[in-house]
Each structure stands twice: as C-alpha cells, then as structure tokens.
C-alpha cells in the first residue's frame, strides 16, 4: 500500500492520545547483522509488537525511487488519480477506508501482490502517472525479503520446527521407526544427539571460509572442477548455473586424498580436519542405514551400510559456498536468486550440515516448497534415488534446492554416500512382499550415475528406469 496523508486538516476530527516522540523513547532498534538479533526481535515482539530494523541491506535508491514516483502520482490532478480507482479494494482510494464507514485524511494506492511481481493489470494506473512498475516491484520484493528474514529469525529464536521436518534423536530406542516414517513421508529428516563433536564441525567450517575468502586467482588454482575440484557458478556440464562456488572431493572408505584436488598451499584448508569430518558423517550415514535395515527387518544388518564402507565406494564430499547476494543482484524480475537449483540426489543417502544461514528448501509431495530452518549443530539426512529404488518406492528421494540470502554467506557441507560403480541397484528381495513387482529396471550404480550426470538438475532422472507395470482394472489391462 502506498499512502499519502494531506498536510491540511480542514474539517477532520482530532485525537490527542499520541505521546510526542523523543530520542529517549524505547522503540526497539534491531541490527539485522547482530548475531543476537533473533532474540532481540522476539523480545520486541513480546513487549511492543513493533520494532525498527537497521542494516537491512535494502539500497537507499530502491526506497527513494519509489517514494519519488509515489509523490509524483499523488501530485497529479484529481481527475488523473481517479482513473486508478475507485478502490475495490485495490486501486486508488481517498478518505474512505474500507466499506464500513471508516474515514481518514488520506489518499492511497492498494495493490495485490504475489511471490513474483505486482501485475500492471492489478491497478489501472494512468499512463502518465509516473509510477514506474519496476520501482514498485523492486521495493516490494526487497521488503518481502526483510519480512521473511524476520520470520525465519523468530522461528530460530523460538526453536520452531516445521511439521514437515521430523527430528530424530539418535539415542531414542524408537529412532529406527521414526527414521522409516520420515523416509516414507518426506525423504528428509534432522538428526540430533549424533555424537559428532562441535569442534569437528566448526574447525572444517572455519577452514572452508578461509579458503573461499582467498583471492579468486588463488581459488582458481584448485579448479576447474572436472568434476572434482573448485567450481564457480557452473553446476555440472549441462548448462545449470547458480549463485554458488564449491569444492568437490572424491572419497573412499578411508581418506580424502590430497591428490584428489590441487588445493593451493596457502589455502588454509586442513586435510586432517576434512578427513575427520568426512569420517564422522560417513559413520552417521551408516548408522542411519543400519537403523533402516533393522526397522525394515532386512538381513544382514549391514546390507545397506556396507555399500558406503566398501573400499570401492563411489562416495563424494562437497562444500558449497553461497556468497551474500545484494538486493540489486537479487531483484532479477522480482524473483529470488537460485543458489542451487531443484534436484534429487542420485546416491543412496546424503548428510548435510550448514552454518546458521537460511536457504535450504524441500519440496513436499503436493509440490509445496518449505524452508528448512538452519541448525549448525545438527545434521539433515536426504534419501537418494538409489535408496528409493532399493526400497521399491517405499522411500522417496526428496527434491530440494537452495535460495540465496541477501545478508549472510551460507556454507553447507554434504556427504553423498554412493555404492561401488559395479553395484547392482534394484529392489532388495528381503523386503519384497509375495507377488510384489519391481517398479524399476535393474541397473548398476555406474550406469545410473552416467545417465544422471547427462541430465539437467531438475529432470526426473529415475524416469528412464521406471517399469511400465501392468494391472487389471474393470476387466482391462492398464499400464501405469
């Protein structure tokens, strides 16, 4: 809503209940760059329901440009402004506020918005109104981002968890059943009490930030990614791009080799910290897979985890860095900038951890995207395509993506647990019920990996390997 209050009072009524503002008034001021901002916001919401934010990263030009265009509109002759009304409820209105008799010394423009753009069709602004639609959309997108960031900080501060993200306590005797439920319903869950020391997580995170803060010419010595090494913006070789730079390493069941990526000597990336971290998250992945095997009564218990512990395991480890994206870069047509486009992971299982910055989203079965609040001392588990096949569709690999953050860098570290290249991927006979048909053609991990990496990120990679199942319905044979 764009509002203009007239400077002349004429016959309006007066109220005298407003305390004059002084510099000593305790209106809360929240610095959005303050690490404790989320707690200050919660206190302000509890005590006042109102606060001021600074260091919000919205350029002054974005604010003043729309303000100038709005003032020009309201200075037009009344007959011109009336062309944008009457408000019903959107459009130009004057004095009347709503339809229930409320009035005020005000004229205004009210627009409907969606998550993309304010449509020029939503309000019939006259062509000579000087209200530039680009300025309007730029401003609305910017303040929407502020609103979302504040709400995410509130969620963090209150330790809210979306109902779509299940939290699994690894010390809970019933954890294996909760894990199976999460894999069936979402293909995604959070684990706590995982026994990985905080020092193991924060040491590698600190080393990674030091690397990504190096001059570009130094980082480039570790690339180009082919596929391992340092990459910047390009994701794979099929045209996918994102607001991202990354390091990708090959792993085996023992160590990440220093020969796998040519990290420059002054990169500050500690190989010992890297291997300590990868070993810890591989253990989490294997423990989760063994709990799944127990819960589904698979025999032997290590039927899944042995794929990751095999010396020929084709696992990999990736460190993604998403630099802060300024508003001018973010406001590309009013849309959020993609850090990493939507996709599923082709491997068996993925273990992801990030610093305390938002951005990760998962897609629910109904197509709704939900944000995952960050938790830099927990891990998130992602079901991969291969595990979906091995459970014959009982588990579903989850589509996920990362959106950029305008204020803070996001650093995420992902372990992708993959089987040996020669391993056959097919529904496991130990869980197949009598008469149950396989939904997928058998393939080796090497075949699927090759096929997956020839596709775009958002493609349905498993589609090429799904069987056409014949069922009987109403006396007819149908292919599904």
From TrEMBL:
Output the superkingdom of the source species.
Answer: Eukaryota
Involved pathway(s): Hormone biosynthesis; Plant hormone biosynthesis; gibberellin biosynthesis
Q: Does the keyword Oxidoreductase apply?
A: yes
Q: Name one GO molecular function term.
A: L-ascorbic acid binding
Q: Which residues form the signal peptide?
A: none
Give one Pfam family, short name only: DIOX_N
Reactions mediated catalytically: gibberellin A1 + 2-oxoglutarate + O2 = gibberellin A8 + succinate + CO2
Q: What exactly does this protein do?
A: Catalyzes the 2-beta-hydroxylation of several biologically active gibberellins, leading to the homeostatic regulation of their endogenous level. Catabolism of gibberellins (GAs) plays a central role in plant development. Converts GA9/GA20 to GA51/GA29 and GA4/GA1 to GA34/GA8.
> Which family does this protein fall into?
Belongs to the iron/ascorbate-dependent oxidoreductase family. GA2OX subfamily.
Q: Which PANTHER family match?
A: 2-OXOGLUTARATE (2OG) AND FE(II)-DEPENDENT OXYGENASE SUPERFAMILY PROTEIN-RELATED
UniProt-recorded name of the protein: gibberellin 2beta-dioxygenase
Highest lineage ranks of the organism? Eukaryota, Viridiplantae, Streptophyta, Embryophyta, Tracheophyta
